[in-house]
Structure formats: C-alpha cells, structure tokens
C-alpha cells in the first residue's frame, strides 16, 4: 500500500484499462482472491487511520464495490471492531465475488442494519466504484449526503461514490457545502484512476492511497500519468546568464501593468538569465525593488532569440502585437488576454497552428473558460473531462497545454496527459496565473522542451503554495518571488 503525494510518479488507468487488468489478474488467481485482498487492504487502512474508532459504519452498494466493503467488514469484525453494515444489495442479483464476501461477513458475525447508526466515528463508503452507471439516488444518495455532512472521517473504497473515475466529475453532488472539514481518504484498488486527481476528484477523494492487490499493471495502456516532482537541475559552475536564456514579458496594458510585472518577477526568481518587461502601458514604471528587470518598448524586442510570455494584463491592446509574437518568438508562453484574442480571431489561430507545424515550442496556459473559448465550447464541457479537453487543445494547436484548475492537466501532442498534484486552494487568488506564466517562461528559456518546462513550472508553483506557512497570507507577488517572505 502506498500513499500518493505531490511527488508521486505513477501511471493512471481509466475504467476500461482497470477492467482489463482486473480480468487478467483474476484469471491467474483462485476465485475471490482479489476481493479478499481488497477488503483486507481497506480494513488495514481503516485501522491505521482511525485506530480508536468504536463505531464504524460501512455503507455497501449492490455490486463488487459493496463486496469490498463486506469483505472489509468481515476483516474488521475478526480484529475486534464491531462494524455496522448497511447493504443495498439484492441477494438474487449480487455478483459472485460480492456474494462470497456477503457470506463471509455474515459468518464473521457482522451486524447488518436497514439504516445508518445514530453516530459513527468512521464511515466507509463502499457504495459504488468503477461500475457507477448513473447518479446515486434514493437511500444511496441520502447515505452519501449524511456521510459527507458528518464530522467523522470518510474512507472511500476504490473511488468516492458518485465520482466518475475517468474524469473526476461528480455524477451528482453528494457532498453538501462543508459544515465540517470532513477528513477524507480514498483507497484506490488495483490502479490509480485519473478522476481521483482532477476536477472534483481531489475534494471528493481527499488523501489517496493505492493498493495494487499484488497485480502487475504492465498489461494495459495508461490513460494519463502523475508526473511527480521534477528532477533537480544542477547549474554548471562555468555557466553564465546567457546559459539560462532571455525572457520577454509582453503585456501590462494601462491599469494592468501589475500582471506583467508579476510574470516578470516570477521569471526572474525562477532563474531566467535576463528578463525584459515589454509593457504596453508606456507610462508604467518598474518596481524599484526589482532593479534586475529591464523595461523595453515591446516593439523593440528581438523575439527570435527570446522566450516571449505574452498576454498577462494585455487587455485588448495585445491583439496588435500577437502576429509578430506568434511569427517570430523562439519560444512562446501564451496566457490570459492573448488566449482570448486568439480565440476570437481566425487569423491568429492560423498563426498559432503554423507555430505548431514549424515545431516552435509553445505553451498555452488557459483556465477552463479560456480553454472553452479556444475549443469553441463551454466551461462545463471542458470541466466534464479535463484531460481530454487539454489533449484536444494540444492536438488542435500543436502546442503544450497547461489547463489550470484543481488537478492542473499538462498535455502535449503525442504524449499522454499528466496531472499535477502540488498546490492547493490558496492559489485561487488574483495574479497567481501571471506568476505561473513567468515561471513557465523561465523554464523554457533555460532550454527545457516545452512539455517538461510546463510540468516543472506547474509543480514548483504548486509546491511553493504547499510550503507556505498556514498562518501567513499567500500573495501572488510572494509566490512570484519564489516564496521569499
Ligand atoms: N471483481 C473483483 O474481484 C474486484 C472488484 N473490485 C471492486 O469492484 C468494483 C467494481 O465493481 P462493479 O463492476 O460490480 O461495479 P460497482 O462500482 O460495484 O457498481 C455496480 C453496481 O452498482 C449498480 N449501480 C451503478 N450505479 C448506481 C447508482 N447510481 N445507484 C444504484 N446502483 C448503481 C449497478 O447496477 P446496474 O447499473 O447494473 O443497475 C451494479 O449493481 C471496483 O470499483 C472495486 O471496488 C476490486 O476490489 C478488485 C477486485
Ligand atoms: K466507493
């Protein structure tokens, strides 16, 4: 059993891949072995996580996810706990593995009840796993709601019930606005699934653990991956500022110079050799506390040798500069208003596609609404399958895409999407996206290929937020300064 952290490197398997692995493994093992291993793993994690729990409620669904819960109940009962099981199954329609576990739970003396206990110290959600086919309703929906509204911790078996394991979309929202900060943990079985790590998956699952049930996952094709912590890059003693490249920040229209300056500060602190601030607001002044930044008229910059970070605070004025940026920049990071301008202009879309055909490294850093505009769809469709949306965008424009949000997805043509696990909701504030664009720019200027630059910058950006002291407000300017306080 392994805990997944922001540093974990792992393949992610969708439901189809997981089913293939499950069938292959089951064919080589005695009947019911996988479910017995699954139930034992659930019981072990429950005992380790809530060793003092006296009242354990296990809510079991009609399929094999419920079977895992029944098996866990038998294991807990044998270890001196007294779980109460509420089971939504029908004895005539129960699949064979779950039926065997039902009999084992009954034989072990597990208590069954029609409705949840009055109170509980730990709830185990074994209602639905990867076989969820529709939104929970009736008793299942009520049990989920009371489980997640309660103060007691919730352990989800395989996936939180109601969550689409492939996409992280909740088929219904069984999780009401939190009255309590309910502790959540999820034990993913056999494989890790993409939906646990993006969209609503992270909130629904909480801390994720994996038990591979002793099976080898090499027989199926992963759908995505967790890229984990990037490698440390040593700086050669003999290197110089030219070794780390030039970054040109192009944006900062009147009233929005701050966004461009945040990106510039972030590029500088992330290690760019030189950073030029090409501000659209000709009257804006540089921050005197950051004398390393060089102020330039954007039209005067020779972008052919530079990494252009374009769009932060760009406003409508950025449109006029985009044809030159897209045609000439050696590397480009395209953010915010530049993305919106491209979405609205067919000629700019052609220029962006042409960059892709010329294999000129480009990273797009949309949030879901910006991604929806570029894909000519709406935010709900993007959020319904974030890895797929990011991949579509990457393929459409021949660019690396950083689809921001909970579980940022990084996609590139010809690669599997990866999901980043560093970062937290403290990044949900103005300017943090500008800081990220600058960090991606610095990583590209240092010579990293665009997908690696994007993955590394996204990870570091999130990691800075994870490291930030809980009692200090995290501002975008502190983030841009690399976490310097
Ligand atoms: N086999 C093994 O050895 C192993 C299995 N493992 C475990 O099995 C899980 C997959 O099991 P599964 O395929 O039986 O699917 P599962 O998630 O239990 O749901 C299907 C059942 O729920 C029903 N149902 C669906 N939606 C519903 C809704 N909204 N509301 C109400 N009912 C709904 C659906 O009914 P139907 O749609 O057919 O009407 C069907 O009866 C996997 O996640 C893992 O935990 C692992 O331990 C590895 C070893
Ligand atoms: K579940």
- The backbone outline, from C-alpha atoms, is elongated
CATH class of the largest domain: Alpha Beta
Oligomeric state of the chains in view: single chain
Strand portion? 15-25%
- Structural class by secondary-structure content: alpha/beta
- Distinct helical segment count: 16
The CATH architecture classification of the largest domain is 3-Layer(aba) Sandwich
CATH topology of the largest domain: UDP-N-acetylmuramoyl-L-alanine:D-glutamate ligase
Say how many strands there are: 19
CATH superfamily of the largest domain: Ribokinase
Strands ordered across the widest β-sheet:
2-10-19-18-17-16-15-14-11-12-13
Overall domain count: 2
Q: Distance between the terminal alpha carbons, to the nearest Å? A: 38 Å
What ligands are attached or bound here?
A: ligand NPW, potassium ion
Low-confidence stretches: none
Helix content: 25-40%
Main beta sheet, described? Answer: 11 strands, mixed
Average pLDDT number: 94
Radius of gyration: 25 Å
Organism: Variovorax robiniae
Cofactor: K(+); Mg(2+)
Binding site for (6S)-NADPHX: 64-68, 129-135, 158, 259, 313, 367, 434
Domain YjeF C-terminal: 224-485
């Amino acid at each position: 059993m392994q805990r997944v952290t922001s540093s974990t490197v792992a393949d992610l398997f969708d439901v189809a891949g997981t089913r293939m692995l499950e069938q292959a493994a089951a064919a080589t093992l005695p009947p019911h072995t996988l479910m017995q291993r699954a139930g034992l793993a659930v019981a072990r994690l429950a005992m380790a996580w809530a060793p003092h729990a006296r009242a354990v409620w296990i809510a079991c669904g009609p399929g094999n996810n419920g079977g895992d819960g029944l098996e866990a109940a038998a294991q807990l009962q044998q270890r001196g706990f007294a779980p109460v099981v509420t089971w939504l199954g029908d004895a005539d329609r129960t699949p064979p593995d779950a039926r065997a576990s039902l009999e084992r739970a009954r034989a072990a003396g597990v208590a069954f009840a029609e409705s949840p206990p009055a109170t509980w110290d730990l709830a185990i959600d074994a209602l639905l796993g990867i076989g969820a086919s529709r939104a929970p309703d009736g008793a299942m929906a009520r049990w989920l709601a009371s489980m997640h509204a309660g103060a007691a911790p919730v352990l989800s078996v395989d996936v939180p019930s109601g969550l689409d394991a492939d996409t992280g979309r909740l088929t219904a929202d069984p999780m009401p606005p939190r009255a309590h900060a309910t502790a959540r943990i999820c034990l993913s079985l056999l494989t890790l699934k993409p939906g646990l790590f993006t969209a609503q998956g992270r909130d629904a699952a909480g801390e994720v653990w994996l038990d591979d049930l002793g099976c080898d996952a090499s027989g199926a094709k992963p759908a995505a991956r967790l890229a984990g912590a990037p490698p440390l890059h040593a700086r050669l003693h003999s290197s110089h500022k030219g070794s780390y490249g030039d970054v040109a920040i192009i944006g900062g229209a009147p009233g929005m110079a701050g966004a461009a300056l945040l990106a510039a500060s972030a590029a500088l602190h992330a290690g760019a050799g030189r950073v030029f601030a090409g501000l659209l607001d000709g009257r804006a002044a540089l921050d005197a506390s950051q004398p390393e930044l060089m102020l330039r008229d954007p039209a005067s910059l020779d972008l052919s040798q530079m990494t252009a970070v374009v769009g932060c605070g760009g406003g409508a004025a950025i449109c006029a500069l985009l044809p030159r940026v897209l045609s000439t920049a050696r590397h480009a990071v395209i953010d915010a208003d530049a993305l919106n301008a491209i979405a609205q202009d067919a000629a700019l879309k052609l220029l962006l596609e042409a960059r892709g055909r010329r294999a000129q490294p480009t990273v797009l850093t949309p949030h879901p609404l910006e991604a929806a505009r570029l894909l000519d769809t709406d935010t709900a469709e993007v959020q319904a399958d974030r890895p797929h949306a990011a991949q579509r965008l990457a393929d459409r424009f021949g660019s690396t895409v950083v689809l921001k949000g909970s579980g940022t997805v990084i996609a590139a043509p010809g690669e599997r999407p990866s999901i980043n696990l560093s970062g937290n909701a403290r990044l949900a504030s103005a300017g943090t996206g500008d800081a990220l664009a600058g960090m991606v720019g610095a990583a590209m200027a240092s010579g990293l290929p665009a997908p690696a630059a994007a993955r590394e910058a996204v990870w570091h950006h999130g990691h800075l937020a994870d490291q930030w002291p809980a009692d200090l407000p995290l501002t975008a300017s502190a983030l841009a300064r690399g976490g310097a306080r």
